[in-house]
Amino acid sequence: MNKNRIIAIIIFSIFFILSISAYYNTLKQKEFIELKHQQSFDVMQQMIDGKIIFFRKQFSNRIKNMVYKRDEFKNIILSQDRDSIIKVIDKLFKNLKKENRYSKTLHFISKNNISLYRAHKPTKYGDDLTKVRPIIEYVNKHKRAKYGFEAGKYAMVYRVAIPIIYDDIHYGTLEYGIDANMFVDDLTSVSNYIKSAILVDTYIYKKLQMDDLELKNKALNKTSNYIVFASDKFFNKIDLGHIKQNTHFDKNKEHYVSFLYNLLSFDGISNGKILLAINMTADKQTYMGIIKSSIISLIILMLIILIIVYYAFSYYEKKIIKLTAIEKKNEQVIHQQSKMASMGEMIGNIAHQWRQPLSVISTMASGISMQKQYDLFDEKTLTKSMDTIVDQTQFMSKTIDDFRDFFKTDKEKIKFELNNVIEQNISLMNASLKSHNIQLQFTPSEKIYINGYQNELTQSIINILNNAKDQLVKLHKETKRFIQIKISIDSENINISIADNAGGVPKDIIGKIFEPYFTTKHQTQGTGIGLYMTHEIIYKHFNGDIKVMNENIDIDGIIYDCAIFKIILPKN
Predict the structure, then answer these.
(1) pLDDT value for 298
(2) pLDDT for 124-175, tens place per residue?
(3) d(Cα 24, Cα 40) in Å, to the nearest integer?
(4) CA-to-CA distance for 248 and 286, rounded, in angstroms?
C-alpha cells in the first residue's frame, strides 16, 4: 500500500471520527433546545390550568352566592316578575364586567331551555337553546352545575352554568360566560415573542347546525379545519390544519414553535384549542451558529491533521527506507505485517464480544440515572446494578486476556468442571433470556472435569445461546420459547447439545453458518463472526468438533421444529 493511500485512509478515519463528534455535539444542543421548549410548554400548561381552576372557583361561587344566599334574587325568581329579573341580572352583569373585562355573557334560561334574558344582548330572547347549547340542556336535565368551553358565533367562551332550584322546584339556569382569550392574554401581554389564537374545529359549528355562519367579525379567519379567533393578522396564510404540538414553522423571517392547549367542554370533549406561537428565532440562530462553528472547526482541524500526517509519514517513510536499505530486515517487515493483521483480527473479535456487556452496562447506568431523576432511587437496586456492572466488566477483562493469548501456542490449560461452566453461562444470559420470555432448561449431569481453556468454552456456549435468542425473539409473543441444554457421555466423547425451538436452520444456509462473516441479520445487528469463532475455538483449541442439525423435539406433548448445536469434546 503506497503512502498516498495510507494517508487518505488515515485522513478519512480521522474525518469520520471528528464528524461523528461534531454531529453528537449538535445533537446534544438540539436536545437541550427541545428540552427548553418542553419546559416552557409545561409552564404554560400549568399557568392556563391554574387560571381556569381559579376562575371556575371564583365566579361559580359568586353566582351561587347570588342565587342561593341572597333572598332578593330568590324572591324575584319566585315572583316570576320579568322586569325585576332583568334589573337584578343587569346589575350583576355590570359588576362582573367591571371586575373582569373579559366577561362575555350572563344569560337566564328557563328549565325548558328557552332563553328568558340575555344581559349581553337584551333584545334577543325566546329562542330554544336545546340543540345549540349542550351545557344548558345538561344542567336543566340533571340539575347539576357544569363548567366548560363552548363555541359561540364570535368567540370561544368558558361557561359557568348554575341551576336555580328553590324548595326542590327547578326554575331554570343562570349562565355566566367569559372570553377564552383571558387565559392566554397574560402570556402574550408580557412578551412580544408569543402570538395567540383560539382555534375552533369547524365540525363544532356543523354539529350545532350553524353551517351558515357568517364571519362578520374582522378578527375572525377561516381555514380548512378551524374557525380562528385571533387578535392580529399573524396567523393569516398559515395552514393551521397541519399545526400540531411542537410544530416548527417560519413567519416573517422568524422561527416559531407551536403550543396547543385543548379547550374541553363540560363533558370532556375538545371543542377547540388555544394556539400559542412562541418565537424561537434566537434558539434557532444559536443552533445554526453551533453547526457552522462545528463545520469550520472541523475543516481547520482536518487541514492541521493533514499537514501533520503528511510530514510525519514523509519523515518515517525516509527513516524506514534508510533502515531497510542498511540493515536489510525484510523478514522483520514481513513479520510486522503479519502481527498487525493478527492484531486487527483480535480487535475485531474483541469488539464483537464486548457488545453485549457494554449494552448491559449502558442499560444499568441509564436506569440508575432515570431512577435518580424521578426520585425512585433505591439503594438495593443500586447495589444490584453495580454488582452486575462489575460482573460485566470482569467478563470484558477476561475477554481481553483470552484474545491476547488466543494465538499463543503456550496458552495455559486449566482443569474445570463442565456443569459449573454451563451454569455460569446461564447466570450471564438468564436476565436477557427472561426479558424475552425464553425458558432455559438444563439438568446438570454427573461431575465432568475437562482440561482446557475454560473462558473460550464459555464464550463458545454464549455465542450459541445468543444466536438462539436472536432467532427466538422473532417468534410470535404467544409462542412458547425455550432453549434446552443437555450433556451426555459416550466411550470417547463428551457431548454438549444446545437446542432451540425457533424453527430450525434453513436448508440452504445450514452448511454456511460457521463461515466467517456469514449472517442472516442486518449489518447493524450482526457481524457473522460469533459462530465462526465458536467453531475455531472448539476445533483448534479443544481438538473437538461442532455440528448443527434440525430435529423434532417433544416438549410437554407438543412437537417443535428445533435447531440443535452439538459440541463434541474428546475425553482425552
Answers:
(1) 73
(2) 889 998 888 889 999 999 999 999 998 876 678 899 999 999 988 999 999 9
(3) 24
(4) 16
Strands 481-489 and 438-442: parallel
Cα gap 51→412, rounded to integer Å: 76
Owner of C-alpha cell 363544532: 204
CB 483 within 8 A of CB 468: yes
Nearest to 198 by CA among 277, 266, 251, 112: 277
Q: What is the average pLDDT across 541-556? A: 89
| Location of C-alpha cell 513479520 | 335
Q: Are 515 and 532 in contact (CB under 8 A)?
A: yes
Burial-class residue 518 by CB neighbours within 10 Å (0-12, 13-18, 19+): middle
Task: Tell me the per-residue pLDDT of 8-39, one tens digit each, with 9 for 90 and over.
Answer: 677 677 767 767 776 777 777 677 777 777 77
Strands (E) in 329-437, as ranges, are: 414-417
Compute the average pLDDT of residues 349-355: 57
Q: Quick one: 291 exposed, middle or buried, by C-beta within 10 A (0-12, 13-18, 19+)?
A: middle
> What span, in angstroms and rounded, lies between the C-alpha atoms of 500 and 476?
15
3-state secondary structure 368-395: HHHHHHCCCCCHHHHHHHHHHHHHHHHH
Q: Which amino acid does the sequence have at 123?
A: T
Cell, residue 282: 434566537
